[in-house]
Specification:
58% of the residues lie in helices and 0% in strands. With 284 residues, the chain is mainly alpha-helical. It has 2 domains: 214 residues, no CATH class; 61 residues, no CATH class. 32% of the residues are buried.
């Protein structure tokens, strides 16, 4: 409760925000949100409501459906959507505390870790932008799946994993983290429940099947815009080098989040055009 309340308190200013950036097309221009009972419109269509949505390569039906349910309960005004994001963030932070305790972390240390998670500045984008709900849902379902995995629940854990993947694609890697944990516990004398991984494979197959139907095949992004992602138009070496630098920058921001940017498109992060290029942390 302490962790959840702190997570809410530091993000209360978000209640006064409007819609910005991706919020506009997803929440103001998507006709599906007026019909939350039409499940086919959410689970059999791409994430983006525009005609070119399939080519964008994104499929997040749980997130889109949550927007529709949100609108049905709180109305079309932004404050209702922001309020739900705050509550979701509080729930994810509480799950982070439960996860730390389940992993054997000392009580006080677990609270400090969860409090840091709750107030860390890099989470502002996921909480304050309504579109960031995809991260909140994926993170919450993934943590819940791991807790269920730890408790030896072979049906609930894959189901929660499926919900995480259908919230945002990045959650697909969650079982690899569970496996690392299982291998560590095996060295400590505990026996992993391998049957659960069959459930994860089945859940992933369901997610991929739904994705193929919604996007017209198992494809990724096909209509990248240069202003959004210049690296997509560069050669393999530039793409890989830039991706590695982005990863390094992400890790740096976890340690020192002094300079955050609301939109990292175009040249907010210049392309890495040479493997010998020295790249110090950007002061912007």
């Amino acid at each position: 409760m302490i962790v959840a309340l702190v997570a809410l308190a530091v993000h209360l200013p978000a209640l006064h925000l409007g819609f910005a950036l991706d919020d506009v097309p997803l929440l103001e221009h998507d006709p599906r949100l007026a019909h939350p009972g039409d499940l086919g419109a959410f689970f059999l269509r791409p994430y983006w409501p525009q005609a070119e949505g399939a080519a964008a390569g994104l499929y997040r039906p749980i997130t889109t459906w949550s927007f529709a349910l949100n609108r049905a309960v709180t109305g079309e005004e932004p404050h209702g959507f922001h309020a739900v994001n705050l509550l979701l963030h509080a729930a994810v932070c509480a799950l982070a505390w439960f996860a730390a305790r389940r992993a054997g972390v000392f009580y006080g240390t677990a609270i400090l870790a969860a409090l840091l998670f709750a107030v860390h500045p890099v989470h502002v984008e996921a909480v304050a932008n309504v579109a960031g709900r995809a991260e909140l849902l994926a993170g919450g379902f993934a943590l819940a799946a791991w807790l269920a995995h730890r408790r030896g629940q072979p049906v609930l854990a894959p189901l929660l994993y499926l919900l995480a993947v259908l919230s945002k694609e990045g959650a697909v890697l969650a079982p690899s983290l569970f496996l690392i944990d299982d291998l560590q516990r095996r060295r400590d004398g505990e026996r992993p429940r391998w049957i659960t991984y069959t459930g994860y494979a089945a859940a992933l197959a369901v997610a991929l099947g739904l994705r193929a139907v919604a996007l017209g095949g198992l494809r990724g992004a096909e209509n990248a815009v240069f202003m959004d992602n210049p690296a997509a138009f560069a050669g393999p070496a530039v793409r890989i080098g830039t991706a590695l630098w982005v990863l390094a920058k992400d890790l740096f921001l976890l340690v020192w989040p002094a300079h955050l940017v609301s939109d990292y498109s175009f040249d907010a992060i210049p392309l890495v055009r040479s493997w010998s290029e020295p790249r110090l942390p950007d002061s912007r």
